[in-house]
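Problem: given the chain below (199 residues), write out its structure.
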Amino acid sequence: METARTPVKKRAPAGAAVLRPDVTDSIRDAVFAELAASGYGRLSIEAVARRAGVGKMAIYRRWGSKLPMVIDLVGAVAVDVSALPDAGSLRADLETLLGLAARALRHPLANQIVPDLLAEAARTPEIAATLQAALRTHQREAGALLVSRAVARGELPADADPDLLVDLTIGPLYWRLAVVRTPLPKGYIKKLVAAVVPG
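Solution.
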């Protein structure tokens, strides 16, 4: 006669540990602090782990090396264009997007990290390719969203170029804040958008 068996709970296999969000947050903060303090070239997994108060394996469970780690974390703090509310016009949408981008570029960590990563990209083809792919993805998402809204409103023709729209708006802003590092004059974003939209 068979007896009822108590179901045995299956244990997760070794190495299948749950990635705790609080640990990921600590690692992210440590990566940004290390990038700002030492730059990408001198950044090490050991230094990040030490600053985050975790073991190196906690980092390697998430990323295989420092390049995907940095690209993933830097990309994660980029402006999420999908969350941009529809401001009612192309001009208002662009002003909102540029306002968010300006705030991000003026952040003290961004001021130190972005130029350093671009300098590393000039020396390392792998970094250049990865960084370009990440940046182009965000650019295409922003351009596609804003152009599709503007086309639906009748503000732009159906064949409007999303990449060109973003190049003409983000480009000057990035040049001022990240390259030549000059403060934005009062009303600069409104003037920039007013110059771009008619084109």
